[in-house]
Amino acid sequence: MNDDRYSLAAAQGLDAQDPSWREHFWVPPTASGDECIYLCGNSLGLQPKRTRQLVSEELDDWARFGVEGHFQSRRPWYSYHEQVSEPLARLVGAKGHEVVAMNGLTTNLHLLMTSFYRPTPERYRIVIEAGAFPSDRYAVASQARFHGFDADDAVVELAPKAGQTTLLTEDVEAWLAEHGHSVALVMIAGVQYYTGQWHDIRRITAAGHAAGALVGWDLAHAAGNVPLNLHDDGVDFAAFCSYKYLNSGPGSVSGAFVHERWSQRSDIPRFEGWWGTEPETRFEMAPKFSPQRGAGAWQLSNAPVFSIAPLIASLELFDEIGMSALRVRSLRLTDYFLELLDRFGAGTFEVITPRHAAARGCQLSLRVPGRARELHSALADAGVVCDFRVPDVIRLAPVPLYNTYEDMWRFADVFRRVIGTS
Fold first, then answer.
1. Any idea which fold 55-319 has?
2. Alpha helices per DSSP H over 269-322
3. How far apart are the C-alpha atoms of 362 and 348, rounded to whole Å?
4. For 228, which of 32, 100, 191, 308 is 20 to 30 Å away at the CA?
């Protein structure tokens, strides 16, 4: 504990050398009025300070223009979603027409599976990771049942080998090479919500395609957390929410990606709605659906303006900073956090997130056998916001946009005092 590197002053020095962009966010206060130690950006990101201005401007324009705001407001509502297509595309490594902001995450997954889960009697299985987020499990099981299959047979959950906490890429590849002839769809989380593992999107996508399957990704915990290259990696489709690392507010709009190789296919099934038609001819009210180019063809309804406005505020910061710079700071911050935890709490916990940087984003999941609930309660009392997952895991997300090295030190200090290490 006397090592200068592990002192509060050392953490504050690192913040001076490698500052965050915390001043652009509202950090919730503790009961005493101090800023909390917020490590829950993997569940809900903090509010950018510019958000209130942008939402207020839309409220003002609604009051001023009424329905005419669709074309006369300062950011016309008719094409409102188009403002975020290019920024989202830059964030996930796509072309602008391959990305659209619409609906919620699971709604988008269902809409995309309508197009890309096309089972046959011989090829009908959906591969996900064991322990996938419940909504994903419910979604794929219901899709299988909708097509007349027994979900217990059709949904395959690939689990880590005995003694391992994460699913190895080579094990996914080996399973698909042997059993892929029965697989219609592979749909895995880019970053696993429970363990924080970052899956190898390029390799797993290639393995799925080699097996003859289509491949989609749930990027809820990946978008804004890790660098993505969806177009070049050949991903067929993906969906992601924007309220975690993209800081757009609770329940806010989702993003959807469809690779351009699918955008002009006339044989692809799709649930259709008015907003998926060409914007230039939409008001001709044609009796037949004429899809616009790209992911926008999967839209059903007009843009949720008050949901997209906060996303604009957040994406301005991502564009200003750049995902590459955020990733560099994320690695430095998370590596320092791991170093502190190992120093202050050695032998009292297990990090179930891969320690290798290429296999994780900013989330760290700690298994604290027998004491996780006690620790979580003590952390809350000390002004730390994080989450507990049964039976014994605490998830922590040092978000490079707004978390500091001092946050890491203060958390580790509470951890040491609660767990009882020197």
1. Aspartate Aminotransferase; domain 2 (3.40.640)
2. 305-321
3. 21
4. 308
